[in-house]
Amino acid sequence: MSSRPTIHQVAKAAGVSISSVSRALNGNTSNPEMVAKVRAAVKQVGYVPSAVAQSLKTQQTGQIAFAMEDIGNAAYLAMVREIQPRLREDGYRLLLHATAADVQDEIDVLESLAQKYVDGLILCPIRVTDRHIEALRSPAVPVVVIGQLPDHVGVDNVRTDSRQGARLAVEHLYAGGARRIAFVNGPADTVPGHARYAGYREGLRACGLEVDELLVEVGDFQVAAGQAATERILARTDVDAVFGANDLIALGAMHALRSAGRSIPGDVQVAGMDDTTLAETSFPPLTSVSLGSRERGGIAAEMLLARLHGGTEPAQRVTVPPSLTVRQSTVEVSE
């Protein structure tokens, strides 16, 4: 097995000193003839500069991390599809990290920024604790948070209003004739879980309906949990609509309803949240509240790039409003 080509071999092939090779590779020479010789020699011997050595000299890694709950969640994938090309245009690689919503894992990610293994971080937590806030006080590299943060936390923040989004879904289901509107939530101690439950209750009250806890279940933001929770609701009461706190939960609800012999939307209407590609391709296509995942990802990338380019303005906060996309899983309401 041949050894990796070295800078010594490049210098020998170019007929110059090692220091001349180093200056040429690092852009520290104005001699175009020297640069041409070194580049030709690099190609000839197949030399690849060490990324570690380069980062030690420039104090830059050329890498950005994106830490989220679940890489497989289509809402996060939509963010990645906006973040990655914008960073790539600026010469950065994107590293993905799944935290499984583990607070300690997220704190570890924030604290490890001191090792300078990345130039910046986009963090998307679904729980925000005092430990998060403390770790965000003085991060070693620029950080942007996608999600709700207290206003006093001094980092750039892109958020949405999922509380209002949940209300939009409930009001749409009511307008389509639903009166027994069930709600299947993710963990209630998460920021989205708390906000979406509050929006569900507000939506019911706005429609003149009472909150019936028989219609409410808490599980996880996954398909299997949505199916199991819907089955529990169906075992104890009648429903004419199910609102899932995300599209995965709503898809699980659709599985449970079909297994129970209920037609969608004839017997039971179903709505979700996030408006992912899964909503478009489900059968029937799923009505869902868009929280602007792609837009939030794009804004977060631009915020981070602005910091990496030396931006010193106060922390920015941008809210992307929700919107409802109506598809065949609910009754279309005429204006």
Write up what this structure looks like.
The longest helix is centred in the N-terminal third of the chain and has 16 residues, at 74-89. This protein is of the alpha/beta class. α7 links the parallel β3 and β4 (143-146). It has 13 helices and twelve strands. The protein has three domains: 7-49, no CATH class; 63-160 and 293-321, Rossmann fold (3-Layer(aba) Sandwich), CATH 3.40.50.2300; 162-290, Rossmann fold (3-Layer(aba) Sandwich), CATH 3.40.50.2300. Keywords: DNA-binding, Transcription, Transcription regulation. GO terms for molecular function: DNA-binding transcription factor activity; transcription cis-regulatory region binding. Residues 5-58 form the HTH lacI-type domain.
Summarize, please.
The protein is α/β, with parallel strands linked by helices and 335 residues long. It contains 13 helices and 12 strands. Helices cover 44% and strands 16% of the residues.
Keywords:
335 residues; six-stranded mixed sheet; Rossmann fold; DNA-binding; transcription cis-regulatory region binding; DNA-binding transcription factor activity; Peripla_BP_I; 12 strands; 3 domains; transcription regulation; alpha/beta; elongated; six-stranded parallel sheet
How much of the sequence lies in strands comes to 15-25%
Rounded to an integer, what's the Rg over CA atoms?
A: 26 Å
- Domains (count): 3
So how many helices?
13
Q: What CATH architecture of the largest domain do you see?
A: 3-Layer(aba) Sandwich
Based on helices, strands and strand pairing, what is the structural class? alpha/beta
Organism: Phytoactinopolyspora alkaliphila
Domain HTH lacI-type: 5-58
Protein name: LacI family transcriptional regulator
Pfam families: LacI, Peripla_BP_3
